[in-house]
Amino acid sequence: xxxxxxxxxxxxxxxxxxxxEREFVSGESHYFWGKRYLLEVIERxxxxxxxxxxxxxxKLFINPKTSKANRELVMNEWYRQQLKARIxxxxxxxxxxxxxxxxTWGVKKMKTKWGSCNIAAGSIWLNLExxxxxxxxxxxxxxxxxxxxxxxxxxxxxxxxxxxxxxxxKLYKNILKSEPLGVCPRTKN
Length: 189
Hints:
about 40% helix
């Protein structure tokens, strides 16, 4: 992909609507796999944890006086764990179909991309925000990055291969474009 096209894509992602900044307090909306949940913050002594209750609420258990930054860290770590639990099964499903295998993969916060691929190293990174989007979006980005192990650029061969492997890829791409992103990360978590 040309550097000019990369800059345009990054600028487009940067302009995409963003959620308002989260305070990580009870009553806020948070998303997981594309579904909206109301956050309920419960102070207690012990290990921080987050659980989904009744398919409607996210319960965040934290120690009293836990800062907003630490509440966010707890939630981001939970999202990271959810992605890391899901990605291996997706790799097992899609690597044989794509015909490429990654040597390593990871999850990190990204400001301007949903994923990235280092072709020489055979590694991919996936954006932490994908845990908030419908599961098909994670699958699309993972397949997209695997296809890059064949084709560096978003050329006709890339799109044709993507279309062969994942015919509905444009639908998932449009979902990602239409939904608001999280607040721009200030630091890498």
